[in-house]
Design brief:
Layout lengths: L1 H20 L7 H8 L14 H14 L6 H24 L3 E3 L9 H8 L30 E2 L18 H18 L7 H7 L20 H11 L28 E6 L4 H11 L2 E5 L7 E6 L11 E12 L8 E7 L11 E5 L11 E6 L3
Parallel strand pairs: 5-8
Antiparallel strand pairs: 1-5, 2-6, 3-9, 4-6, 4-9, 6-7, 7-8
Helix pairs in contact: 1-4, 6-7, 6-8
Pfam families: Inhibitor_I29, Peptidase_C1
Enzyme class: hydrolase
Family: Belongs to the peptidase C1 family.
Length: 373
């Protein structure tokens, strides 16, 4: 334990030192400076609640349009912000091939962030059978392209914003349906997450408490089952997103796409890549513990639990070699579409290293089949 603690402490110190020395990286300069500021040591009592932290906090408020109703709330958020500066430095030490720092979520505690922006329920289920719907067929991985990106093919809608609603599962669901429909028809439609938030109450066959529950979370596979039973999903234009749960206003005559079946994908990441290339973007669940502070680069944390999945996203592609911010080596990576708006991450996208089951990326993967006529 003492040796592990020493390694961790050294890692945090090195992260601060490397970040301070990494100023020639122009794309990430402002955020790195925000994280490291005046200090070179991860000390909770060193300038965190002083003038330096408050100046950074005020810049954060301007950049992200933050306002607080009372002085007490302002001071409360300042304290959380100061703690998140340390958390970002800790993440940087644990995840040196990415850049971590101040984001739009830096005034939220970890518990608040998870409650507002995450919403996947249940454990990884890839490769299992459910209600007669089996796992995807085994697919060969030979002759796969070195890199692949469905955005370049026109199969991915713009990055969306779920707001303070744990509806990530709904955005993951619509993303894979949008992609499947595009591949089948050549038409890209923007589908309604709000229909799922308002109307979907489907439950998992094996985890009876894992039911879709609007802004309180859900599962992509549950959503597929609901859509099969409901007869399909409307477009965003006919059932727009509000960011909160309301009365179900689904109109069958407005259905834009019908879901006919769904499948779960085996945990082998090469086979996930093969299915992605041949069938389109995939809905995935992952452990988002490093995403609150993520700014850019290829995230490849030294430790990231694979069973604690709490966030639904869309897998749209992969790359063979990711740029290493701190020159610590190139890594193959997944390209992931998030639903926290374009100000987060790399214009709304996340790159996560590929081939290690990182953060459980391979344990909750699914795809849908849609009706083409």
């Amino acid at each position: 334990m003492q040796q592990g603690a020493l390694i961790y402490a050294v890692g945090v110190t090195i992260a601060f030192t490397l970040l301070t020395c990494a100023l020639p990286l122009p794309e990430f300069d402002p955020k790195i400076l925000q994280v490291t500021g005046n200090g070179h040591h991860a000390n909770r009592h060193h300038h965190l609640l002083g003038t330096a932290a408050e100046l950074r906090f005020k810049r954060f408020m301007v950049e992200y349009g933050k306002e607080y109703a009372t002085d007490a709330e302002y001071l409360h958020r300042l304290g959380i912000f100061a703690e998140n500066l340390i958390r970002a430095a800790e993440h940087q030490a644990m995840d040196p091939t990415a850049v971590h720092g101040i984001t739009q979520f830096s005034d939220l505690s970890g518990e608040e962030f998870e409650g507002m922006y995450m919403g996947v329920k249940g454990e990884g289920v890839s490769g299992t059978s459910e209600n007669g719907v089996g796992a995807a067929e085994e697919m060969g991985v030979g002759e796969l392209p070195e890199s692949f990106d469905w955005r370049e093919k026109g199969a991915v809608t713009d990055v969306k914003m779920q707001g303070t609603c744990g509806s990530c599962w709904a955005f993951s669901t619509t993303g894979t349906i949008e992609g499947a429909h595009f591949i089948a028809t050549g038409k890209l439609l923007n589908l309604s997450e709000q229909q799922l938030v308002d109307c979907d109450h489907a439950c998992d066959a094996t985890e009876k408490k894992a039911c879709d529950d609007g802004c309180s979370g859900g599962l992509m596979t549950n959503a597929y089952k609901y859509l099969i039973e409901a007869g399909g999903i409307e477009e965003q234009s006919s059932y727009p997103y509000t960011g909160k749960r309301g009365e179900c206003k689904f109109r069958p005559e407005k259905v834009a796409i019908k879901v006919t079946n769904f499948t779960t994908i085996p945990v082998n990441e090469d086979k996930i890549a093969a299915y992605l290339v041949r069938h389109g973007p995939l809905a995935v669940g992952l452990n988002a513990v490093f995403m609150q502070t993520y700014i850019g680069g290829v995230s490849c944390p030294l430790i990231c639990g694979k069973k604690w999945l709490n966030h639904g996203v869309l897998l749209v592609g992969y790359g063979s070699k990711g740029f290493s911010i701190l020159r610590l080596g190139n890594k193959p990576y997944w390209i992931i579409k998030n639903s926290w708006g374009k100000k987060w991450g790399e214009h709304g996208y996340y790159r996560l290293c590929r081939g290690h089951g990182m953060c459980g990326i391979n344990t909750m993967v699914s795809a849908v089949m849609t009706q083409t006529s």
